[in-house]
Amino acid sequence: MALEAKYNAQNIEDKWYAYWMEHNYFHSEVDDREPYTIVIPPPNVTGILHMGHMLNNTIQDVLIRRARLKGYNACWVPGTDHASIATEAKVVAKLKAEGIEKSSLTREEFLKHAWDWTEEYGGVILDQLKKLGASCDWERTKFTLDPKMSQQVIKSFVDLYDKGMIYRGYRMVNWDPEAKTTLSDEEVNYVEKQGNLYYIKYAIEGSEDFLTIATTRPETIFGDTAICINPNDERFTHLKGKQAIVPICHRIIPIIEDEYVDVEFGTGCLKVTPAHDENDKMLGDKHKLEVVDIFNDDASLNSFGLHYEGKDRFVVRKEVTKELEANGALIKTEQHLNKVGTSERTKAVIEPRLSDQWFLKMQELVKPAIKAVLETDDVVLHPKKFENTYRHWLTNIRDWNISRQLWWGQQIPAYFYGDGKEDFVVAETMEEALIKAKEKTGKANLRIEDLSQDSDALDTWFSSWLWPMSVFDGLNDPENEEFKYYYPTNDLVTGPDILFFWVARMIIAGYEYTAERPFKNVYLTGLVRDKERRKMSKSLGNSPDALKLINDYSADGVRVGLLLSAPAGNDLMFDEGLCQQGKGFSNKIWNAFKLTQSWDISMEIGQPESSAIALQWYRSRLQQTLVEIEDHYGKYRISDALMGTYKLIWDDFCGWLLEIVKPAYQAPIDQKTYTGIISLFEENLRILHPFMPFLTEELWHLIAARSPNEALIVNHWPKLALIDAKLLTDFEFAAEVISGIRTVRKEKNIAFKDSVSLLMLNSEKTNDRLNSVITKLGNISEFNEVSAAVEGALTFRVKSNEYFIPMEGSINIEEEIQKLEEELNYTQGFLRSVQGKLKNEKFVSGAPEQVVANELKKKADALAKIETIEASLKSLKQ
């Protein structure tokens, strides 16, 4: 068979992916087999493939391909998430570049642009996953805004509202001024930033006196409605009951007392801005203070900001500081390190803001999810170390703000019919809302035109928390055949950064709607970082082009490179060298197959004893590895499973087995050995297929012509069989003997083509089961036991066995004597140098203890080496 000199991955990958798609191997239908189901963590519809996706989806593909080989009805559901904030921001930016403001469009007009954008860019990432080899059931591809998917989200909202678990409240929320929407607490990252603490004078009304406050946000003085002091702070007793004047805007505000104020922080006086700080809001409610909101939705100042109206908050901070300084109200400025809330999505600095929002009560909902993970192991996190994070989040959970001031997403199904805050109904459709509104108001003449739907959309996570159920239409039709068959799913593979955002919420939803877990195992991958431990990102420019990596190193090479260093839960320090290692593994296997195809096969010759025992050994070694990797899979140590497979094929198959059975130059191989080798090669391909699907499928079909039903992707996993443990132990011993022979040959320059005799003092009582292997790989002319040490022979030990290679005819004695004498002279000179240092009292007393210890070790090593060389010379000269 003529094979290409090098493995050509590009042609092979395109060919086999098309073949798999043509024969519909990825698709699953309900049948009588046990299902194995994975749902993909849906990437953003506008996303492109990055290293995190590569790692996550490679692991999923490994699990799903192995499940197919093990006979399960494997179903991997792909899809994308509409990603409200990210997608709307991109559409708004695109429109702005075209001179169109979102505010100039109706909701329907904007959504048309958003759908156009989605149709143009959406799904690109799924096509890219195909290049990686992802064997998803593409016929089941879902999008979180598909009609049936959205219908289930709305149904969930209405159900939870009817149960009294969703409510509308006027609360302090996290406002993202770039995305112009609220965020949940979990979508805010707190980042340490170097800022300033500004000390500002507030005049006391009707007095020459003043007080000083310290603030990090001088621009918010326009929203001040009180100054608060601690009633126990004797420094400010004279201020009780008085009023202060806010600089610049000259608003007169009361001085209130509350023990909330920390007398040790700043000046002990606190400015109270109820509209822009959650703690200030609580103080304001307690003391019935006025609430003054000074910001527009983009965090520019509104009319309360006077001459700063329309300017950005950070611009105002600088300008207000200058004005305060100019009028003598700024006493001093100090540097101050504080934690600043930033948007997880846009990175904008968050503004606390009072707003009417929709919230989901979480205290009761969360209890089954806590029990499932932390008490019963109904759901298992891999690695378990993440249970602590899970516990912390869920036991400290707050009500979930589920409304967003966006248009891209499921519109909240609340319909208003009057002017009051409670003048609304919640229903799945406008028609149902009208019926409910008539019942609630008693007004039979209400019309649909009298209703207006809440303009807000639901948080994207409120859609994706239903994902394992909604992809099988589980909320619309809980009794449907597919939902009952595929749900609960088996494994979820995702990153620890969305353990709360998504994983915990899916568990909560699963128990709420089905009283069952949504999945059994959660495999939490590490984050992919660069060699400097930085998280990979576009902004840092340290994230390689995923498709270029595949082009350079092959899909199989990249998969192997990622997985070799990706233990669950530990971050992966990515290095392209890992992909090169994966590519090298592909070439190693390709060349191993080429070697087998270069042999002529003879029906006439018998099987050598060395080949027979080697095949028997490798079968046991493969079985031993199979047990090990099954254990690794069971514990979700996918990296370890690959490493076990890698070593088996590279070291044991290529490094040992092929060397043992390889026929002599231009000699044929016997039929029985060749058949055995190919059979074992096929077993290797079966266990390697989940990791390297393209290469293994190609070699599978090169070995023999296969029908579509015989393709490797739908073949079977190797069956467990008995392991000859004694043979494995004996082989390890024999391998050490062979290594000893090779070392002697190398040290004494004995060419492998020159055969040597081997004598053994058999203190270990080893059997002769593997003598034929030792004889072949050591090129031994005769191998015998002796009862005593052999004088004048080269020697090495394996455990208590001593082996002798008689020198006669093996080496040039005169050359060896000369070589040893040169080495002896050099070593004696080195020893004299070391001894000179150690005789120097100044060196010994003044040098660090470790340096002296190193010199003493050099002396001991040199003495031992001299003794060995002298013994060898004595033996040679006898």
Short description:
This protein is of the alpha/beta class and 878 residues long.
Describe the fold and architecture.
With 878 residues, the protein is of the alpha/beta class. The chain contains 27 helices and 31 strands. It is globular and about 120 Å long. The two termini are 57 Å apart. The model has no long low-confidence stretch (mean pLDDT 92).
CATH class of the domain at 181-351: Alpha Beta
**For this entry, what is the oligomeric state of its chains?**
single chain
**Distance between termini?**
57 Å
Which stretches are poorly predicted, pLDDT < 50 over at least 5 residues? none
Defining traits:
17% strand, globular, hypothetical protein PF0899 fold, Isoleucyl-tRNA Synthetase, domain 2, four-stranded antiparallel beta sheet, 27 helices, alpha/beta, Helix Hairpins, 878 residues, seven-stranded mixed beta sheet, single chain
Helix/strand layout:
Blueprint: H1 9-22, E1 35-39, H2 51-69, E2 73-77, E3 79-80, H3 84-97, H4 107-121, H5 124-132, E4 142-143, H6 147-162, E5 166-176, E6 181-183, E7 188-204, E8 210-215, E9 226-229, E10 243-245, E11 252-257, E12 269-272, H7 278-287, H8 313-326, E13 330-343, E14 351-360, H9 367-374, E15 380-382, H10 387-395, E16 400-401, E17 403-404, E18 414-416, E19 424-426, H11 430-441, E20 452-453, E21 457-458, H12 460-464, H13 467-470, H14 481-486, E22 491-494, H15 499-514, E23 521-524, E24 528-529, H16 546-553, H17 555-563, E25 572-573, H18 576-597, E26 601-602, H19 609-634, H20 638-661, E27 669-670, H21 671-688, H22 693-703, H23 725-747, E28 756-761, H24 771-778, E29 780-785, E30 793-798, E31 801-806, H25 813-839, H26 841-846, H27 849-877
Parallel strand pairs: 1-2, 3-4, 9-11, 15-23, 22-23, 24-25, 26-27, 28-29
Antiparallel strand pairs: 5-6, 5-14, 7-8, 7-10, 7-13, 9-12, 10-11, 14-16, 17-21, 18-19, 18-20, 28-31, 30-31
Helix pairs in contact: 1-22, 3-4, 9-10, 9-15, 16-17, 17-18, 18-20, 19-20, 19-21, 19-23, 19-24, 20-21, 21-22, 23-24, 25-27
